[in-house]
Amino acid sequence: MVEGRTLLREAYGMTTIKATCPSCGEVELTGDDIELMVCPSAPMSYYAFRCPTCSDRVRKPADDHIVSLLISGGVEAVTWEIPAEAFEIHAGPRLSYDDLLDFALWLGMSDKLAALADAPLSR
Ligand SMILES: [Zn+2]
To answer: Per-residue pLDDT tens for 106-123?
Structure first.
């Protein structure tokens, strides 16, 4: 079972991975059933699968131990990185709902934007 209780069982040349669905409890999966997304920022690594019983998509965090266990069970790891924009420091007030409404109204009234959209691209 994944989450510290991951159980890998080798049977008929295929490794069975037991994981937990929040609705159905313990389910048995193979390495092909699990998507393992490993991020260099460790807390952002996760694994996901579609529950074979209820078909819900289950996603759970994967620490280094779980990542190692899943890889040893035949799960292919895919590396992903958090976009640099997520680490940008933003100053100033947050965009409010009113700001968004004002912007939408401005878009509806602005001829300049329409003119820009029709303008030929310059290189
Ligand atoms: Zn389920």
So the answer is: 888 877 777 777 777 655
Using DSSP's 3-state secondary structure scheme, residue 117 falls into helix
Q: How far is the CA of 106 from the centre of ligand 1 (A)?
A: 47
C-alpha R_g of the chain: 23
And the tokens for 44? Answer: 């952002």
> How far away, in angstroms, is 88 Cα from ligand 1 center?
38
Instruction: Please tell me the total count of domains within the chain.
Output: 1
Please give the Cα distance from 3 to 15 (Å, whole number): 17
Within a domain: residue 36? yes
pTM listed for this prediction: 0.64
